[in-house]
Specification:
Protein name: RUB1 protein
CATH topology of one domain: Globin-like
Structural class: mainly alpha
GO molecular function, one term: oxygen binding
Distance between the termini: 58 Å
Mean pLDDT: 75
InterPro entries: Globin-like_sf (IPR009050), Globin/Proto (IPR012292), Mb-like_M (IPR044399)
Number of strands: 2
Organism: Symbiodinium necroappetens
CATH architecture of one domain: Orthogonal Bundle
Largest sheet: 2 strands, parallel
Order of helices and strands: HHEHEHHHHHHHHHH
Radius of gyration: 33 Å
Low-confidence stretches: 1-32, 220-232
Strand order of the largest sheet: 1-2
Number of helices: 13
CATH superfamily of one domain: Globins
Strand content: under 5%
Length: 291
Amino acid sequence: ELDEEPTEDAEAEVEEGQDAEGSDGESEAEHDETVAQDEVLDKYAVVYDQSLDKVRFPADIVAEIKRTWQLFCSNAGSPEAAGELIFNAWWAAAPSLHSYFKTPRTVLYLRIVMGIQPIVAALSHPTELKTQIDIISFRHLDRPVTSQAVEIVRDAMLDMWEAELASEFTPKARAGWFALLNYWGGAYVFYQREYAARIRIIHRSWREANKAAAQPEDEAELPAVAAAASEQPKTEEDEEAAEENQVAEAQKQEEAGGKASTEVAKTAHDSQMKVPNSFREMFLFNAAVMG
């Protein structure tokens, strides 16, 4: 075991443990949620996509990852240049991913570095690290990420860093980046599998709701206007016939003891009730009922 001063997260956990004494072991449950330092390199020796856990990387691994990242950015000269090196490694290693890079290159280079920077900065803080991984994973839900694609991108980045940093990219640094990229890429796959379909349903529902709300008033009134236009003017004979029918109907209702009235009311109610028979109609019906 390494003799090291407690980190901010370790001190926070001690404080949480003190506050949680006598609370039916809540502090133990919180501890179990975080992958321990001695388990990280073993668990993330592969792209792990079954869950997204809080992870505490060993302090020496964290130091090597941060050192090599800062050295790489410094040697590149600018964030854009560093992003270009990473992008070129991806581009050469994964031709199948070319169609997903639609952002202008200069913007994309900077975005790559700005995406990695907060991940590296949060390595010593499991909760913050998981939050940053959450954020960037949700941004990539529109891309069908697979474990195989993660492995290709991971190996391309490691090979690029070995070429750029030479002996400065130590075995410990490689092991740390290897585990971090497996953890990070596995989160992409996990979110794609668990949440992408649900997000698409929400987007679709939102579009349907906005489509109905944005419908022009003139268009909404067309059915009523068409119905009114189709009605023919009633003649005097038609009005007399209608009155005779009403009298006859009233006599039938009186003879049946009001039974006919009940049936007529039920028929009218049923005819006015329209059962939703499509996704859009069901969504709009639920929106109207639930508010």
